[in-house]
Design goal:
Length: 381
């Protein structure tokens, strides 16, 4: 720690992203990147935008990208907000819609009325943002099978946020349940933020985007990213959809930081990606098919595999393989395969495995089989 850090900086526990190795070549299945390349139209648009206009500031309103999003999803552009990745959009949402401790009337927050709610096993950036903005919160336990119990979200709260599908579990709730939660939040005059980073990979009946609900619920904000579904993790573009009042709130926060959050190249590439839906529908269907095949293969090896609606699977190694989650993670890394391990209660024995190409997933399955067989052979000696 530096002597020059503020008290707030000293208290922060930053988010730790997945490993991005530079020392050797790995099969990289640890950060949920799309294994397939972006649309050729995206590359063409970026190359065209790389001109002498880079000397000029980008459009602070992100007009053309927002209009492309609006056209694709059938909403008015005034109901679309653009940001530098969905993480930035989420950070702005925390600041815009959830009260900090110093803005609450009471000396201490009232648990039923003032606490932001999100799952205890969820995107680990949520508590980081809450601490950054000094927002009081309560985590709601998932059920023993890691499914989401919506009952606690139907009472009073200071706001609600969660991913659907959830991360790192990969599980999702139906639009009907989302509607119930949005209604409860509206009765409390609070905002519900649904983080749909992985919704493009959902294929279960009843599991789909909450977008049709934004006309009914002016307190519902949907946050999306192009990192996963559009193969653009390196471009850093996200967006939100919701009522004009919510979008205006996000703009107020953004313009208190930096009005030019997206550069010209990112805007050009993102607009082209949004317009090439058919290309991305094709590659994402391939990912869904691979996910199902890998889930079945891991299950056949004895893994406990949660039902995923994302571009990753969440799985625990077989009890009899002689290795826990951390040890299995290390064994895969030794074989040149990176997956994600979270050293947190309840999920410490699980691995989050991103879906790669079919060849990469075949290599993963072969490696898992070898690790299990070696462990069983050692146990029999």
């Amino acid at each position: 720690m530096s002597d020059y850090w503020s008290a707030r900086t000293r208290k922060l526990e930053p988010y730790i992203p997945g490993e991005q190795p530079g020392d050797r070549k790995f099969i990289k299945l640890n950060t949920n990147e799309n294994p397939y390349p972006p649309s050729p139209l995206v590359i063409e648009a970026i190359q065209k935008a790389a001109s002498d206009t880079l000397r000029l500031y980008p459009d602070p309103t992100c007009r053309f990208f927002r209009e492309a999003v609006a056209a694709r999803y059938g909403v008015n552009a005034s109901r679309v907000f653009a940001g530098n990745g969905s993480d930035e959009v989420l950070a702005f949402a925390f600041a815009a819609f959830f009260n900090s401790k110093d803005t609450l009337c009471e000396t201490s927050p009232v648990p039923g009325r003032d606490l932001l709610l999100f799952p205890d096993i969820s995107y680990s950036f949520y508590p980081v943002y809450a601490d950054l903005w000094n927002i009081p919160y309560r985590t709601v336990p998932l059920r023993d099978d890691f499914s989401m119990d919506i009952e606690p979200y139907l009472g009073e709260s200071g706001g609600i946020i969660f991913p659907n599908p959830n991360a790192p579990t990969g599980m999702a709730i139906s639009v009907e349940k989302l509607k119930m939660i949005a209604g409860a939040a509206r009765r409390n005059k609070r905002v519900l933020v649904v983080d749909e980073a992985y919704i493009a990979f959902a294929d279960e009946d009843g599991i789909s985007t909450a977008l049709p609900l934004i006309d009914e619920f002016s307190n519902l904000l949907i946050v999306r990213t192009l990192s996963k579904e559009a193969s653009l993790a390196g471009l850093r573009v996200g967006f939100a959809l919701g009522a004009e009042g919510l979008i205006e709130g996000l703009c107020r926060v953004r313009d208190s930081f930096n009005s030019y959050t997206l550069d010209r190249l990112a805007l050009a590439g993102a607009e082209a990606a949004i317009k090439d839906a058919s290309y991305y529908d094709g590659i994402n269907r391939r990912i869904i098919a691979s996910r199902k095949r890998v889930s079945a293969a891991l299950g056949a090896l004895g893994f406990t595999v949660l039902p995923s609606q994302t571009n990753f699977v969440f799985a625990a190694p077989p009890a009899g393989c002689g290795k826990n989650g951390q040890e299995f993670f290390s064994a895969l890394r030794d074989r040149g395969i990176l997956v994600r391990h979270f050293s947190k209660p309840r999920i410490t024995n699980y691995l989050r495995i991103s879906i790669g190409t079919d060849k990469e997933m075949d290599t993963l399955i072969d490696a898992c089989r070898a690790i299990i067989n070696n462990g069983q052979a050692s146990g029999n000696k």
